[in-house]
Structure formats: C-alpha cells, structure tokens
Design a protein that fits this description.
371 residues, alpha+beta, Transposase Inhibitor Protein From Tn5, Chain A, domain 1, 2 domains, ten-stranded mixed β-sheet
Amino acid sequence: MPYPDELKYWTEEVSSQFTGLNRAQAEVLALYSYGMAVTQRCGQTIISTFLGLLLGMRIANLGQRLREWTYEAEQKRKRQRREIEVESLFAPWLKWVVSYWKHPKQLVLAMDVTYLRDRHTILAISVVYRGCAIPVAWRILPGEQKGEWHPIWVQLLNCLSQMATFPPQVWVLTDQGLYSKRLFHVIQGHGWHPCMRVRTQGLYRPLRTNKWRSLEGAAYRGMPSKALRVACFKGDPLLCTLWMHWPAAYDKPCLLVTDLPPKRLRGNPYALRTWVESGFKDLKRGGFRWEHSKITQPERLERLLFIIALALFWHVRQGSALQDELLADHDCPPLSCSTLGWLATLVATIRQSPLPFAFFSAYSFPFPLQE
C-alpha cells in the first residue's frame, strides 16, 4: 500500500525539520499528525485505532505513545523521559512553513485570541494563506485566569524572531482588542510592520495641524479608503499612519494604525487578518474538532495544538495544489484550502495514488514592496 510509504516520507520530513527532537519523538509526531490529517479528528482514540488498522500495529500501544507525546516528563513510563518544549519548536516550525513559498518576499502574521468553550484562552500568532491561518506560536491559559497578556505576546514574538532569515518585509496584523503602544513598538523592534486595528474611542491629530479630532468621526459609511500621518491618542500619543475604511455594507468603520507610509497602503490591509477566523474554524468545529478534546491541562493542550498545526499544514499544502488545478479549469468550488486538502488526501487514499504536495503560490498583498 502506498500510504505507509507516504508516512515514511512524512516521518523523514518531520525529523529533518525538527532536529531538536529525538528519533522516537519525531516518529510519534509524524504518526500523530498524519493520522489526524487523514481522519480530520484530534481524538487520540480514533487516531490510534485508524493507525493500528492501517499499519497492523497494536492499537493500545499506539494510543499510549500518542498520549505520552503530550505528557510531562515525570508522567511518562520509560526511564529516559523527555518533555516536549513547544516554544523551542516555534522558530523551526515557522521556517518550515515559510520554506513552502518560492522566493518569499512578503510574510503576513496575524495575532489573535480564540477560546475552547469557556475552559481555555488561546493566544496565537498565525501565518495567513488563502483564507486559512496556520498557527506558528501560541500560549494556552485557563479560561478563568486573569492577568496581563503583553508579556506573553512579547515572548511569542521573540520565539519567532529566532528564525535565522525572514522575508524582506513582514507585517503583523491585530484586531482592535489587542492594540497597545508598547506592542506596536515591540513589533517594530523586530524590523516588522505593525498593522493594528483600533477602536473609535479617543482622539487623533493630523501632523500638519494642532487640532485634536475624534476617531469616532474620522470615517463615514461608504467612504473610500484614506490614510494620513497622525498622532493618535492624546493621552499617550503614537506617531503613525492612520488608515480609515468604511464600506457601505458594514456597520462599523475599520481604523488601522501602522508605521507604513500612507502611499504604501492600497486596497484593504485588514482583509488578510480576517483569514485567522477561518483558521480557528479549521482547528475546531470546521476541521479537527479541537473543542471536543478531553485534555484539560494547558501545557498538554499546547503540545496537542502543535500536532494539529502540522496536520493543518498537511491539508493546506495539498489543498493549495488542488486549488491551483481547479482554478486553472475554472471549476473551483467555494471550499477552503484546508478542506480541499483533506478531500485530496481521501481521494489519494482511495485511489492509492501518491500525494501531490506543492509549494505555496503567491497571493495578492495589499502592501506593495518598498522600492
């Protein structure tokens, strides 16, 4: 059968990308993510059963290996026990994802928060691509835990910055609930461009005037996009570019602050940030059903999310190839890149044909490259 061969190739690929893992850890990671990609479920029981039937292995033994991948070192059975440190994998993981662009010149990261019901809060940074979002760094907190998120965001950004080489231009998009002047400058400090949505409360002042104006009245419904250099927020001014946009079909305006010059902003920069919502849907009810996981410890959930992220990557790089093929035939259905990748995996399994992994193709950026 061809799929054990595909699993062998996937295991070799995982091992080569995450050199900090030993051979046994890489093999279980490959098994777990492969089973998850094919079944489109994150439950350990269904994945271990599928793999046991496929490979002719004992289901109970497979289940124990999968469970222990998420365990702390002291909870594992063997003497030579090592705990998976997820944060140490973020930089090589981002490097692997970026390597699937041919000659990447631009990269868009989206920072956002999602929830597993009322049990956990997930702070995630994702690479957005074709209506999908692949998580590359995250922290999971208990749902009732209170505290400041800023240090966590700083740590996640620092983890990603350890990747040796970045595309020439990197943009970091955030929703309005995450804006802070400190975070704006932290993103700049890495040589990246913040594009942060802000609320309409507060004042701004165009740099050519001394008069402060209300952000609430900065935009009107149906207006064309507009950008100008301003000092934003009178109490703690931020020198930035304020981008304003209010399509007639929307109830609220979109206001962004960024360090890009006004002439560099074209189209709708915020549109790519909305892809992260589709990415969260792929992780949960629209894909791997993460919200049904029985795991409750945040540290174990962080390790499980790493496996889900790899399975999503499997889907997206398959779906990208299929999407290009269907677009060329003018027969592309209204399905996400991730869903197309899962269907392509099922079809290849039934036909016993090899998997046509492809490089990610470039998509239209609203920010032109700086000349």
